[in-house]
Write a structure and sequence with these properties.
By secondary structure, the protein is of the alpha/beta class. It is about 25% helix and about 30% strand. Strands 1, 2, 3, 4, 5, 6, 7, 8, 9, 10, 11, 12, 13 and 14 form a 14-stranded mixed sheet that branches.
Length: about 325
Amino acid sequence: MTDGPSIAVLGAGVVGMTVAKLLQDENRKFNITIIADSFKENTTSAVAAGIFRPGTSFRGPTAEITKKWINDSWYFWQDILKSSEAPQAGLMSFSSYIFSKEHYNLTRNHLIEDLVPIYRAVDKNELNICGEGWKYGSYFSTIKIGCERYLPWVEKQFLEKGGKMITTTVESFNALPEKFDLVFNCTGLGAKLLCHDHNLVPIRGQVIKVKAPWLKTALYGDYDTYIIPGFDGIATLGGVRQYDSYNMRVCKYDSAAILERCCEMLPALKKAEIVAHKVGLRPHRVPVRVEPEIVSGVKVVHCYGHGGYGVTCAPGTAIDAVRIGLDLLKLNVKTKL
């Protein structure tokens, strides 16, 4: 225990763990405790395919802040990717195609077209990569962040640098296990009850993990169809986006529809061994909430509501949240901001 301020991070998904990492990088004298009811493979982050591809509906409070979050996230992930730790941290580069039979605009992404090394329209021959009938398409280079590796990697570093972890459910900011000088609320969907935030809505996702070591390129199609390569030869097939659904059970009808769409795009998947079916609830909020608040005398910085783009944009929002938190520590504020 150092003589630095005592800081709590609520939530151990990709957002919370990244906030904790940035805090330790900022000042080793901080006494940081991560408090969560789920860690590593039991988080929603671990279900995600983890491709860096923010949806065009992803929004911060302004267009400028949204773009800054995305750009800052890209460079954060790039720094790890270029390091010797990249494989252990779950970072890898790959390319992706996105096709549509119906809408040209679905193949464009103004948020990253000027950020990633390559983003271009496909040629006529490339339209036939995934069978016939595709009218529009784009090719882009990007990265994957595998949270099945990233979360344990950050946790190991966090503990080695003196961080603490507590497994419990926090029902209110007044019911924390000890007194903290600053609290970061990275609870994802848990913030709905913790903050009584009715703007936070679950968007249910379901994916299939299959063995496909030969897959090196990501593929997107219409109707939320995606095929994402991964580590250890495990690919992610998706998906669904079911608004305001709390169903955490695997739905056999969703599984059948995902397999049908993905195998139509890539027939070789028919022979792929299914490893697991996974379900997660994306914490969707417009805009994503990154702001300070004094709750019953507790200094809180909220950082939640990333929807399906938490893995992509966690670093950018975490950088802002930590900056806000450091400013808040300097203030002697007793009233609600």
